[in-house]
Specification:
heterodimer; A: alpha/beta; Pyruvate Kinase, Chain: A, domain 1; B: alpha+beta; ATP Synthase, domain 1; nine-stranded mixed β-sheet; 44% strand; globular
Amino acid sequence: MPSLDDLRKRITSVKSTQKITKAMKMVAAAKLRKAQENAEKGRPYSEKMNNVILNLSKSITDKENAPKLLVGTGEEKVHLCIVLTADRGLCGGFNTNIIKKAKSYFEKIISENKTLKIITVGSKGYDQLKRQYKSYIVENISFKESKNINYFDADKVGKIIIEKFEKNEFDVCAIFYNKFKNVITQIPQEQQIVPLNEDKDGKDDSSNDNDYEFEPDEDEILSNLLPKNISTQIFKAMLENSASEQGSRMTAMDNATRNAGELVDRLTIEYNRSRQAAITKELIEIISGAESL
Amino acid sequence: MSNHFNIDIVNPEQSFLSKDNVFEVVIPAVEGEIGILKDHIPIISFLKPGIIRVFSESEEQSFYVEDGIVEFKDNTLSVLTSSIFDLKDADKNFVSESISSAEAELSKDNIDDQKRFLLNHKVEVLKSISIN
């Protein structure tokens, strides 16, 4: 049975933890709003980019000579995985969910005897993956210094990918990130960016769109556009990720605050009980002492 | 009937400009400047460093762009670019910095002709901005 003093100390300590988690929740909520805004503002760009590429790739008739970034190298031996995580912890299952998704993909690749290469973006992902997959990690990028997500950072990652592709270091490239659905739900995503998956939502209003004029020709535009598209996709993933991170942290901290509150309540009851028990004990001692006189 | 069409300029961070009352836009496409009026044929092209000029009834706006993609379709001109600024708020320091970095790049030996051409062009345009 802990003494009264111990209980009092524990209550104070839990209360101060609660203060911290509460403050973190508030900060995350404020940041979330901004991150969400940014994610929404960034959407038109990637959507338009997708549209243009969709229209372009439809008008390409000569599949043989199409840029390799679009159609792939024709092989599927080396997989490059970009795992985008946060730089900070204390955000619930945010990082773990991405890692879990990525790990199941890694296992599949390894069991199929294909070569795996990993690039981690964000230090948490690197920390969690290095134990098991150290030998596969080719690069670890972190943008701890940049305060806000900016396109410049995404472009850096994009350039690394392009460079590796041109050196034939991989055939397939996939990125892993959390898609922001709402504050409580973030869905870990796996998205293939090289070669481009064009099968999805390709059935829109595009039956009569093939009358575009191209200047210069399609191939040249595509080879200019595709590297940009990679950076754009990474940027989109980073925006979604940052909104998800804040959302996840907010929920986690909210839960932590609530749990701390419950713990304080329980400890207070215990504290009061033992205080009362002590008083009763003293009273009994006094009364029985007086009676025996 | 009005001869207006829509223009959307977006950069990765946000929607930069969106207007529905422009009647002419001049864009620095890679093979030369293109002037676009209403009911232009659908076109996809990409940009070289230069000035986008947007004409509407009330005003004329000019933007410097470094690269980007343009798409014109259904009387909507979409410009996707990662580097753009309004000439009105051009930052002198930024312009001169860009010039010197481009010139430094030019002085390297290992660049191909196309890149050299683009860089030369960039320096030219930026210099013309800094004079004004």
